[in-house]
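FORM 7B: Structural annotation worksheet

SECTION A. Query
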Amino acid sequence: MPTKKTAAPQSLHAFRDDALADHDAVALAALIESGEISAREACAAAIERARAVGALNAVQHEAYELALRRAAQPRAGVFAGVPSFVKDNTDVAGMPTCHGT
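SECTION B. Predicted structure
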């Protein structure tokens, strides 16, 4: 018996009313530095946005729990606490390097 295909959504977006708002990395870094938002809040918002567009299969290796634990730790640097994603063709200790496969 043939399987029924599910129609793909016509559009996907990750925009939310969250800690990330429509800020760029510089603005997020300033908000985190000032204490207006926490690195953990920014991280959780980035994770929620990635999950919202999960149908795109854009995230090869979900290390969300690790990211949340690290966001709770003090860090130094200009972009400390600003969430980011690393393309899977870049070697990162403890993460798989898949080169887009």
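SECTION C. Observations
The helical segments are 25-34, 39-52, 64-71. The mean pLDDT is 89.

SECTION D. Sign-off
Analyst initials: ____
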